[in-house]
Specification:
Mean pLDDT of chain B: 82
CATH class of one domain in chain A: Mainly Alpha
Distance between the termini of chain B: 28 Å
CATH architecture of one domain in chain A: Orthogonal Bundle
Helix content of chain B: under 10%
Order of helices and strands of chain B: EEHEEE
Largest sheet of chain A: 5 strands, mixed
Oligomer: heterodimer
Low-confidence stretches of chain A: 466-477
Number of domains of chain B: 1
Number of helices of chain A: 23
C-alpha cells in the first residue's frame, strides 16, 4: 500500500500444499519482522482461501486471514465462512498479501478489487466511516456480480484492537461472517484498506489431481455429515428435529454447558446462568417458528441457514424481531450469545441480538467486545444484567470523539486495566471464549498454550474432556492434559488449512469412513499423501517460532491468577493444572 | 425429590413447556434408584438420550441418585459438540460401549 501498486506472483513450489492457515502463518512467519509494531508499515495482512475452497467438497469454503496481532503481539490466524473463499478459489488465487501502508498523513481509503487475472487498488473514500450493513449494500450496488466482500469497519479504521475482519453472507443481508479474533480488522485499517472485493466472473472450480478419488472422498464425507446427529439432516422421518446444528445452531451448547456447570456467567463468576434458556439455540428455533406462523412468507427468521456455498451442516441462523418477523441479526452463534448475553448477565434475547448487530455493524469481534463490556460491568460502570446499558455503551463506538467508545472497542485487557479490574479473563491479551477452564481444564491448557491466545477453536477438547474420546478416555479429574490439547491443536491447524469447517470434526471423529473421506479429498486434490498430525505440527511450529521471536515466553502460556485461586460454582474447582504440565504441550516442538 | 431439567424434544414431557424457559419436572425420590431406572420411569429408552448430567457431572446409567439431585436430560441429538460420540463411555449415545473409563 506504500505506493499503491500490486504484483502477481507465481506460487513457489514449497507453498503448493499450503492453503488457509498454513499459508497465512507461513507467509507471516517468513516475511513479517516479529518485533514490528502490528499497526505500522512492517506488518502484513495475509488472506488465503483453504486448499479446497471453490471445489465441490462439502463445507469446504473457509477463509483464513493472518498477520501479527495487535492484541496478542504474536502471530494470528482467524477464519470464517462467507463467500470470499469460494470466489478466490474459483479465481485461482492462493493468497493476497497486503504490505506497507500509505505515507503518514494520508487521508484516503482504499479497496482492493480482485477479478480474473486482474487486481486493482481503488480509492473508495465513500466506503469509510459507514456501518457495515450499509457498506455491503453499497458495494453490491456498485458491483453487479454480487462479489465476496471482506474488510474492516469503523473500529478497524480507528485501529481499535477489538476489530475483526467482517465478511458478507450469501444473501448480502449481514456482514456477520467474521474472522473475528486478534484485532486483525485494525491491521487492515492501518493499511487504509476498507474492503477486499472478489468478483469470480469467468472463474472455475479448482481441479483435483485425482478426480475420481476426490469425488469418492467427498461422497464419504458428505454421508458421514448427513447421518451424524450433530451435523445431520434437519428432520427425521417423522418430521421431528434431528441434526442439532441445523435446528439449534452452535448455540445448542448454551443449555448443555449450563447443565454441565461450565458456562462462564457474569465475567466468569459462576458456571451456571439462570436465564440461559432464554438466549439459547432452542429459544431462537422457537422464535423463528413463531414468527413464521405469524408473518408467513414475510418472516425472515431462519435456522438451518447456510454460512457458505456448499455447506451441508448449515449451522447458521437468522434471528427475527419478535414484533415484525424481520431479520435482526445473522447469525447468532453460541460464543456471541455467551459473550454478549450470559457473560453480561443479560437474558433478553432481543438485547443480545441487538448487541450482536451493533458489533457486526461496527466491525468488532463479539467475543472480545463481550468481554470488554464484561470488564465495564466488573469495573462498576454499568450493572450486570443491564442490557440497555450495554447497548448504550457499545453505541459510543460510533462516536469518534467518545473516550468510552474507544475503550469498549479496544478489548477486555485495555478496558479492565483502565478500570482497575484485577480479574481480567485474557491470555496473551486476547479474551477467553465460552467455556470455563476450571471445570474443563483441557480447554484451559489450549487457552494457555495456543499460539493464538485464548481461543477455543485452536484445540477444542470440550467433549473429549467432559465425555472422553476414542478409546483413551480422559478423566475430567485428571491433570495430564498436555497430550490431549496438543493433538487437538495439531489436527485443528490441519483442518484450518484445508478450507473445511472445523465442525466436520464432530462427524469425522465419530465415523471413520468420514475421516478417511476427508483425508482422501485433500490428498486427491494435491496429488500427494499428507500426514494430518505432521502437517498440523509444522504449522504450529512456525507459529510458535514467530511468537518466540516476538518476545513471548512460557510465562505467557498461563491463565490469569483468578482462575487458579477462585473456585467456580457449582463444581467449586480451580484451574489447577501445574505449569510443568502446561509446558509439556510444546516441549521439544 | 429429584429435579429434572428437560431440553429439546424431551420438553414435550411437560405440558405447555416452551424453549425459552426452564422446563423442570419434579419426581419423587426413590431410595437406591439408578439413573437408568429413572429414565425407564419416564418411559424413555437409552437411544432417546444424548449427553445427560447429574449435578453437572456426566451421567452414567449405573449412577445411583440422591435426594435433591439435579438431572439434566438432553435428547439424542443434543450433545457436546465434538466427535468420538460412540466411544465416550457413558453408554447412552450408542450402545456398543461397555467399558467404564473412570
Amino acid at each position: 500500500m506504500s505506493d499503491l501498486s500490486h504484483r502477481w506472483e507465481k506460487v513457489p513450489p514449497e507453498y503448493e500444499t499450503l492453503g488457509g492457515r498454513a499459508f497465512t502463518s507461513t507467509v507471516v512467519a517468513r516475511e513479517v519482522d516479529p518485533t514490528c509494531h502490528p499497526l505500522r508499515t512492517f506488518n502484513k495482512l495475509v488472506v488465503s482461501p483453504g486448499l479446497l475452497a471453490g471445489t465441490s467438497a462439502p463445507s469446504s469454503g473457509r477463509l483464513s486471514v493472518g498477520g501479527k496481532s495487535p492484541l496478542t503481539g504474536g502471530i494470528k490466524e482467524a477464519n470464517a465462512g462467507g463467500i470470499t473463499a469460494t470466489k478466490l478459489g474459483r479465481l485461482g488465487v492462493k493468497g493476497i498479501i497486503i504490505e506497507g501502508m500509505p505515507p503518514a498523513g494520508s487521508k484516503d481509503w482504499y479497496s482492493i478489487l480482485v477479478r480474473k487475472g486482474k487486481a486493482e487498488i481503488l480509492k473508495t473514500n465513500q466506503y469509510a466511516g459507514v456501518g457495515l450493513y450499509d457498506l455491503i449494500g453499497k458495494i453490491w450496488k456498485d458491483h453487479a456480480s454480487k462479489p465476496g466482500i471482506i474488510g474492516c469497519g469503523i473500529a478497524g479504521q480507528r485501529l481499535l484492537k477489538g476489530a475483526g475482519i467482517f465478511g458478507n453472507n450469501i444473501e448480502n443481508t449481514d456482514p456477520g461472517r467474521y474472522a473475528g479474533r486478534g484485532g486483525l480488522g485494525a491491521v487492515l485499517g492501518s493499511k487504509r484498506v476498507v474492503a477486499i472485493i472478489s468478483d469470480d466472473t469467468g472463474g472455475a472450480p479448482p481441479q483435483p489431481k485425482d478426480k475420481a478419488r476426490f469425488e469418492a472422498g467427498s461422497k464419504k464425507l458428505t454421508a458421514a455429515l448427513d447421518t451424524q446427529a450433530v451435523t445431520g439432516r434437519l428432520k427425521d422421518d417423522k418430521g421431528k428435529p434431528f441434526g442439532a446444528l441445523k435446528n439449534y445452531g452452535t448455540n445448542v451448547l448454551q443449555n448443555i454447558l449450563n447443565e454441565a456447570g461450565g458456562l462462564p456467567t457474569r465475567a466468569f463468576k459462576t458456571g451456571r446462568f439462570e436465564n440461559a434458556a432464554k438466549i439459547s439455540g432452542e429459544a431462537v428455533h422457537e422464535l423463528v417458528d413463531k414468527t413464521r406462523e405469524k408473518f408467513g412468507e414475510a418472516a425472515e427468521g431462519k435456522y438451518a441457514h447456510t454460512c457458505h456455498v456448499g455447506c451441508v451442516m448449515k449451522c447458521s441462523n437468522a434471528v427475527p424481531y419478535e414484533k415484525t418477523g424481520k431479520m435482526h441479526v445473522s447469525p447468532l452463534e453460541y460464543e456471541t450469545a455467551w459473550a454478549l448475553g450470559t457473560n453480561l448477565g443479560v437474558g433478553v434475547l432481543e438485547d443480545v441480538a441487538e448487541l450482536n448487530r451493533l458489533c457486526n455493524d461496527l466491525g468488532l469481534d463479539t467475543i472480545e467486545t463481550g468481554n470488554a463490556l464484561g470488564m465495564l460491568m466488573e469495573g462498576g460502570m454499568i450493572g450486570f444484567g443491564d442490557g440497555k446499558g450495554a447497548i448504550k455503551a457499545l453505541k459510543e463506538v460510533y462516536d469518534a470523539k467518545s473516550a468510552l467508545g474507544r475503550l469498549v472497542g479496544s478489548g477486555a485487557l485495555t478496558v479492565g486495566q483502565a478500570l482497575g479490574v484485577t480479574r481480567i479473563p485474557v491470555v496473551k491479551g486476547q479474551a477467553l471464549p465460552a467455556y470455563d477452564p476450571r471445570p474443563i481444564r483441557g480447554i484451559g491448557v489450549t487457552y494457555a498454550t495456543s499460539p493464538m491466545g485464548a481461543d477455543h477453536t485452536a484445540g477444542y477438547t470440550i467433549a473429549a474432556e467432559i465425555l472422553g474420546i476414542k478409546k483413551k478416555v480422559t478423566d475430567p479429574r485428571a491433570l495430564e492434559k498436555s497430550e490431549l490439547s496438543r493433538n487437538f491443536q495439531a489436527t485443528t491447524a490441519y483442518i484450518d488449512s484445508t478450507g473445511y469447517c472445523l465442525f466436520i470434526a464432530f462427524a469425522i471423529l465419530d465415523i471413520d469412513e468420514g475421516f478417511a473421506g476427508m483425508k482422501d479429498t485433500v490428498n486427491a486434490f494435491l496429488g500427494k499423501e499428507i500426514d494430518v498430525t505432521q502437517f498440523g505440527m509444522d504449522v504450529l511450529r512456525k507459529e510458535r517460532g514467530f511468537n518466540r521471536a516476538a518476545g513471548l515466553t512460557e510465562k505467557d502460556d498461563r491463565l490469569p491468577e483468578f482462575f487458579r485461586k477462585e473456585p467456580l460454582p457449582p463444581h467449586n474447582v480451580t484451574f489447577d493444572v501445574p505449569p510443568e504440565e502446561i509446558d509439556k504441550v510444546y516441549k521439544g516442538v | 425429590m429429584i429435579e429434572i431439567h428437560l431440553y429439546g424434544i424431551l420438553r414435550d414431557l411437560v405440558k405447555g413447556s416452551c424453549a425459552s424457559e426452564d422446563t423442570v419436572l419434579r419426581v419423587k425420590y426413590t431410595r437406591g434408584e439408578t439413573f437408568e431406572q429413572l429414565v425407564a420411569r419416564l418411559e424413555l429408552a437409552r437411544k432417546d438420550l444424548g449427553d445427560c448430567f447429574i449435578n453437572g457431572t456426566l451421567a452414567k446409567h449405573s449412577d445411583v441418585l440422591h435426594d435433591g439431585d439435579r438431572i439434566g436430560l438432553f435428547p439424542f441429538n443434543m450433545r457436546l459438540l465434538c466427535g468420538g460420540q460412540y466411544l465416550k463411555g457413558h453408554g447412552f449415545i450408542e450402545s456398543d460401549v461397555d467399558i467404564d473409563h473412570y
